[in-house]
């Protein structure tokens, strides 16, 4: 006969493993990046400036627009977002294991390296913005409103600020001029295409991650990449509506101490040719950086899941082999 409880233990091990995979996928949905190679540094810069001077101008722009400080906070802020994702899904996934959190934190710190993100974004800026463009943007950033908004955005990029936003969301609707301010921030979202780009990244990340899972575990019989993409695209509008609401509240909270007149002035700048070009380049460069790092993260997570699965299978086999065999009683 079979040793009592052996099958039950095996079942529990597999259930725990699948739960671990679900937790990891929860994190991947938050990160939502797709792979793209680093943007090359342009070889067609203006003849009146050396490459070193162009690099210095790029450094000034990245420092004064606040993106360097935001990039430094990426690993910690990403981890805060992962914890919040776990918290919101605890009823489905169960309590969060600190061991799993520590593993994810280690992978995030290794793959979302601020040095790598800065290098990719800087290369994209130098490829897409001329020296004249950068100087025009610097003039805006050095204006009183530009300085004020940059300081606010820097302060809003920390994990602590993210948690404050999460806690404050239920009360935002009580703001006296809520409807008018909401309309302005929704225009800002559309102007910089924030929601659109996030949805693109979420869909692409899900496809890439599931494809990687299918490659690592052929028995899962994943559909083709084309079929997966078509399936996710069917839900694009619903996803866009959800992200747009969350993005509007995020922008609303970040600029809660900025007057409506200042927000309108900011929107006017974003709708100028240089404003549109500047934000487009920053958004696309950031996407290139985060998608490159997101791909590395996805690969590391899939490998970790595979390693855990193999260890569980080895342990299950060891238990089976060590289990005593009882004689059959006739």
- Helix residue percentage: over 70%
Q: In total, how many beta strands?
A: 0
In whole angstroms, the N-to-C terminal distance is: 11 Å
Question: What is the typical, i.e. mean, pLDDT?
Answer: 78
Counting H and I runs of at least 4 residues, what is the number of helices?
A: 16
**Spans where pLDDT lies below 50 across 5 or more residues:** 1-19, 32-47
Q: What structural category do the secondary elements indicate?
A: mainly alpha
Strand content: under 5%
Q: Which of globular, elongated, flat, extended, rod-shaped describes the shape?
A: elongated
- SSE ordering: HHHHHHHHHHHHHHHH
Radius of gyration: 24 Å
Major pleated sheet: none
């Amino acid at each position: 006969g079979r040793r009592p409880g052996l099958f039950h233990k095996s079942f529990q091990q597999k259930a725990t493993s699948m739960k671990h995979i679900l937790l990891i996928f929860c994190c991947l949905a938050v990160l939502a990046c797709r792979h793209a190679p680093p943007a090359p540094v342009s070889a067609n810069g203006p003849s009146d400036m050396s490459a070193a001077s162009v690099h210095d101008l790029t450094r000034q722009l990245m420092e004064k627009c606040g993106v360097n400080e935001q990039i430094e906070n990426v690993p910690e802020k990403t981890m805060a977002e992962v914890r919040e994702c776990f918290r919101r899904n605890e009823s489905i996934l169960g309590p969060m294991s600190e061991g799993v959190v520590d593993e994810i934190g280690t992978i995030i710190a290794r793959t979302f390296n601020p040095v790598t993100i800065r290098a990719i974004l800087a290369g994209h800026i130098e490829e897409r913005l001329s020296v004249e463009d950068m100087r025009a943007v610097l003039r805006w950033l050095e204006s009183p409103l530009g300085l004020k908004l940059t300081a606010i955005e820097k302060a809003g990029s920390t994990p602590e600020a993210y948690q404050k936003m999460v806690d404050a969301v239920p009360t935002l609707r009580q703001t006296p001029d809520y409807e008018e301010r909401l309309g302005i921030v929704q225009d800002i979202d559309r102007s910089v295409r924030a929601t659109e780009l996030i949805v693109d990244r979420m869909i692409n990340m899900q496809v890439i991650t599931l494809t990687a899972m299918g490659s690592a575990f052929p028995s899962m019989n994943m559909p083709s990449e084309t079929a997966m993409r078509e399936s996710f695209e069917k839900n694009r509008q619903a996803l866009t509506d959800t992200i747009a609401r969350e993005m509007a509240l995020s922008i609303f909270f970040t600029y809660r101490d900025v007057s409506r007149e200042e927000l309108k002035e900011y929107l006017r700048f974003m709708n100028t040719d240089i404003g549109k070009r500047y934000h487009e380049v920053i958004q696309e460069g950031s996407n290139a950086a985060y998608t490159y790092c997101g791909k590395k993260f996805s690969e590391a997570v899939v490998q970790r899941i595979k390693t855990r699965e193999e260890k569980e299978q080895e342990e299950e086999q060891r238990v089976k082999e060590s289990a005593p065999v009882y004689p059959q009683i006739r």
